[in-house]
């Protein structure tokens, strides 16, 4: 148990305690790989035609979003339904992007691989550039739960729960501006503490600069303007007043509403659901570096279903991925029941809701 280990044990990879933790990881991985092999044997076509399966899901999801937009523009489908259904399609596209980051589709056919990467990006413009995210995500697997896990830290993992974290969970732009000072202070602090070297510091700064997403910031600016415009009108209506907006602003209302309903709002909904689940199912700060079974839990309570719908059951299946990286998301979902039995048998936490009050620490703080 991590509670019985000293900080030296946590970082000393030659200690007997650390080796025992690694052995546990290997055993869990072996048993989960056996489950994966059984699923693959039951569904050989999904393995043999993995590229085709990925492309089919990609085209169906993009087609679903386009169809929703057309039906809304024709007055057939209400806006709220477009937002909900397109959020579901973007959750599938997120799973595809994650698989693409791990080179699971068209590894030997770069044109189709990068075409899919561009497609999942343009359909989810609030997200980070996937070619940049690839570096961050592969780094996340190596250092999950530590201060240099930029991917999870970026979506508020390890932050105290308050109004600020609530806003940052669903808004990448606010997540940057509400913590802008940390981006200048924290890397130098890590360097001073010896947790990174000067090469790491340079890489962190380069990745930070490249992570700037102008497309996403334009979309967030439109979103913020749309929300504030309607809030102001709502307040004015309640007090019996009327706001005299300039004509040039009112002239933008049509196209702005169309972009928000068909593209931006579905992605805001999906982003909030994914980041809420992901940032709270991962542990931070007091887990042994590199020890997979201390990196995350399984979150599958029934009352999380509304959130899980828009991140494709991420909370229930992502812990499996930390142990078995090779499987595309649909294999992981098919193996869910048997994989959960393995995880339970080895003491992986399920629905540890205390993570919210512990700021995602694995254990209660002792000081």
Automatic annotation (TrEMBL):
Residues 78-351 form the Fatty acid desaturase domain. Keywords: Membrane, Transmembrane, Transmembrane helix. The keyword Transmembrane helix applies. Pfam families: FA_desaturase. The keyword Transmembrane applies. The chain crosses the membrane at residues 52-73, 215-235, 255-277. This is Fatty acid desaturase.
